[in-house]
Specification:
alpha+beta, 4-stranded antiparallel sheet, 9 helices, about 70% helix, about 10% strand
Length: about 425
Amino acid sequence: MKISSLILASLIFYHTNLLAATNLNDAFKAALQNNENYQLSQSKTKQLDEKVTQSEASFQPKLNLIGAYTRLGLPEASKNPDYDKQSHSLRFNATHPLFRGFKDLATLKGAEYDKLSQKEQEEYVRLNLYSTVAQSYFSIIAYEGDLKNLAEQESLLTSRVKELKERVLLGKSRKADLLSAQAQLASTKSQIESTKAQLEITRESFANITGLKAETVLDTPANELPTAKEINYYLTKIDQRPDIKSLQRQVKSSSELTKATKGSRLPSVDLNGNYYVDRSGKPKPSQWDVGVTITLPLYEGGVISSQVREALEKQNEKNLLLDQARKNAEKEIKVAYETFLSNQKQLEALSESITSFYAAYQEHLKDYRYGMSTLLDVLQAQTNYLDSKKSYDRMKSQTNLAWNQLLVSSADENIQK
């Protein structure tokens, strides 16, 4: 009855953890809510949205209410009774820009491109965060796999040590064999403690990134790994990367900045109007006036020419940065692609080695029962089998990580939106 209750409790615990397990996408969603860099990037996008609104306002008329009071000092000799020693006015002033050398239009377009660039930069921060979460996530999976394999190794070694002690007492095994097994057991226990420490550090880092609890149960990825397409498929996605798209927008923004700077050489035309609510003066002045103001820059010490040259150099700088980013992106994709393929091949080889080492281990156990193998032979075969199993599990985590890095480097649509 007690055994049945324990089995039932174990099954309930297992299924509860399984249902509560957090997968990579869940961890990433949590990180988006917890990461300050991503939130700062969103804030910058909102700021640039307001910059666009401000640029649009430059096309609208401006209306002001202006009041003025002036007192004049007159010579004592002045006896003119019609001369007013003070004046005042209260007026509505309206100004509407008619032409500014196309500077307003270029500035507006530049602000829109800056906003689009920052939006892509926000997406780039998001992709980098996904990469960081994936690295932490699969590191935890790898350490947990190591602990599982080391625990199995410790259990088997403990059994072997117990058996050797009995055989040494009966004179059937050498004490040296017992000491070797005990040394392996102590080394395994040391590895377990070291791995636990690394796992704890990695879990704390995971908690800091995602805002989840350090002890959060993580979902182990499926055994089947995805198949990569031809490398050209990923290379054609370079211009879809958010960092590349951001720089493309910056190039267009710098081009508009150059146009706006060149527009400073052209005349500006403004329509001005005033409506006087109250106005002093003799004879009584008119209640309104309308006028057009034309301003043509003739000479400003060469400032405009210098600003144009500066804008052209900034435009050239953005083009160079874009070319550099494309080369770096191509390199990242190629490295990620080759790493994934290499890991896949290693995984296949390790899978075969597990099968071979396990078969050898079973043969040594069989031979040991008939006195054809020593216990040290069994221990060595056991160690080879468990080491290959540990290498396989770790390589599986690294391959999953390499796959996610490939998706990130190519900004693939398979990454959860």
